[in-house]
Amino acid sequence: MRPSLAASLLLAVTLLGACDPSHVDEMRSQERLFLGSLGLSAPGPRAPGGRPGRRHVPSALWRMFRSSEDARTRESDPCTVSEYGVRGNIIRYVQDQGRLVSGWSSSCQACVEKQLFFNMSVLQPVELLSLAQLEVKFHWRPLRSAELLQAPGHLGVSLYKVIRATLRGANPQANRRLLLSQSLRLQPEPSSVTMDLTPLAENWRKPGRNYGLVVELLPLGAEPEQLLPFHPGHSLPPEPAFALPPIQASLVAVSLNPHQCRSRQRRSAVRLPVTPSNVCKARRLYIDFKDVGWQDWIIAPQGYMANYCHGECPFPLSESLNGTNHAILQTLVHSLDPRGTPQPCCVPIRLAPISMLYYDNNDNVVLRHYQDMVVDECGCR
Ligand SMILES: *[C@@H]1O[C@H](CO)[C@@H](O)[C@H](O)[C@H]1NC(C)=O
Ligand SMILES: *[C@@H]1O[C@H](CO)[C@@H](O)[C@H](O)[C@H]1NC(C)=O
């Protein structure tokens, strides 16, 4: 890690008042501040090659990331997610943390149940939830084609919300409400069920309200002997290839952080000149996230042109230096008493956003629109 680069990044993104914030402590605290604004408590572990078993990035999220990159140079509202037609600047794939298979259902002998749990506290309280869409994917890969013939043709999929905790011995059905019930054809290609759960997910954000969901799978249209593998105590291996398609569930949560959504968002395609000069202006700086040790949790981009402000704010302050009246007076006083009063600082006065795709502390994949990441213009302040 090159501290000077990290310091420049933090300078670029945090608009510090001081001209030269190069202390390591200050840098650490600025890093924490920046991560906090991303909703992270600390950067992810820095094991080489990243964490094993990390979720792959859903292709829909990659598509949105690429289109947001293209949109940067166009006039487009960064606080609307056009893919879903809702307001938002953060898209999370919240990972299911429910227990894998809770065994054979007590209420339905041939059913298999899976709990789904999405920890909604990854959303910061300030965020407004615009959309929560559940996506349950069934990856059913028969090992042999014979299993395709033996297996039941359809699965009955029922989705329940759990409204309170069930005490031992009580009937769990009493604490559930059916949300959806449909039949799914089993096929070698993954199939999925999606459902809008926005009001429910909003409720889950309140403390003590999230009891999660239950998915119940019931093989349909099979002969009784074909159901054999679905029954407890059968003599086949505990998980025959066709008994239960592995379930992968995620909650796509789109939210808006209103503090990070100001109206002036235009990303100018500013090309910085490379003319040497010691007067205040924006300078080119490419930040490679590897250099600041963030490559394990930032998925994309790998780096970006962040730029920084540097240079003198000399007397008399010319108009092109975009000084405030205060800065004009400060340069005047500085010219009279250089020891007593410093020159104004050369700082960013216009910053532009970028989009970032990263893993949060819970390993959810997040696409977020980040303001104030690129210096477009500098001025004397
Ligand atoms: C949810 O996530 C928060 C913070 O990430 C954590 O403190 C909390 O224990 C989690 N809750 C559950 C039930 O896993
Ligand atoms: C001051 O602002 C103008 C446009 O408003 C810009 O062209 C110029 O580069 C800025 N000056 C500096 C030092 O960045």
Automatic annotation (TrEMBL):
Instruction: Specify the TGF-beta family profile domain's residue ranges.
Output: 264-381
Q: Which GO terms describe its molecular function?
A: cytokine activity; growth factor activity
UniProt entry tagged with the keyword Secreted: yes
GO CC field: extracellular space
In which compartments does the protein localize? Secreted
Q: Which residues form the signal peptide?
A: 1-21
Which Pfam families does its entry note?
TGF_beta (PF00019)
Q: Name one GO biological process term.
A: animal organ development
Coiled-coil zones: none
Keywords of this entry: Disulfide bond, Glycoprotein, Growth factor, Secreted, Signal
Similarity comment: Belongs to the TGF-beta family.
Please give the name of this protein.
Answer: Putative growth/differentiation factor 3
